[in-house]
Here is the input.
Amino acid sequence: MHTHGGFPVQVGSETRYNLDLRPDDVAFWVTDPGWIMFPLVAVGATLAGACVLAYQGTIDHPDVTRLWRLLDDHGVTVFGSSPSLARMLMGRDPKHPAPSRLRVLGSTGEPWTEEAWRWYFADFGGKRCPVINICGGTEVGGSLLASAPTLPQSPCSFSGPCLGIDAAIEDDQDTEPPEGHVGELVVRHSWPGMTRGLWRARERFADTYFSRRPGRWSHGDLVSRTGDEWFVHGRLDDIIKVAGKRLGPAEVEEAVVGDPAVAEAAAVGIPHPVKGEALWCFAVPAAGRPLGAPEAERIRGRVAHALGPAFRPSRVVAVPELPRTRNGKVMRRLIRSLVTGESLGDLSTLVNPAGLDAIRTALQEQ
Here is the structure.
């Protein structure tokens, strides 16, 4: 439940300050109405006096250049994507010129890999558009962390908390970890766009966001800070624990997609009787590249070299596609459930349910 005052204040300030939306802009974000980015852009652009491009349908039909033509035909100046969508486009890069009017790029939904971030900035954006990273949610009523066009930026980073957000990082002992170390993103005071509760579920609201750290909002994202910049490493429930050591899937996936045979990847932790969890990697082959046993062994070696021998993947499974939402976010929990035999649960947000059958077949064949 949101309020008529707090929500517009939150998204209005963010679209003006973080996305630099102006009255002569045309904004387009690849999203659906159930995700925060739809109302954030629609309401925020309206408050800024800007235009919003609405498009229904796939953005790669009849071919991948559809998106580039869409942006050029409608003069889009502010464009937003999930990192997963950028990785998909990068793997099918048609070497198309950057859209002519683009001046700001946005991203949200999950962590970046540096290779995909650089492609998004340099190839897709023509090296002229700042990448505005956003971390928030529907229940946030906007964003907690974001970048800004006027502030320095490293690949994959956030400039810091948004206006009015008292964000901090806390470890398992409720203390701030040393610089560069990962902890959970928390908020210490309320903010304008914060939801006032869940409809007819007051207890669930309190339990979900306040039970683990009384008095602080627990967001569930794993983050770190280096200097003035913040970095998001994934969701708390996506964390992989191998023999007592913890890591986020983004660290593994960056090492995997660095292999020329891989276009996309997802890393998950699978229950193991000795290690607690074993690391499994699911990789989508790059166009025209084989991904058989020799390539899988090479990928296992890359991960071990990047993260240490303890994180050498137990299995590398080649799959034709990864399960993803309409926003382009990879559904790692579904991959884990396919391996463990658990119930898949709610599939209503899945855009490619047939991909689950393909993954199931790959597990049986490899």
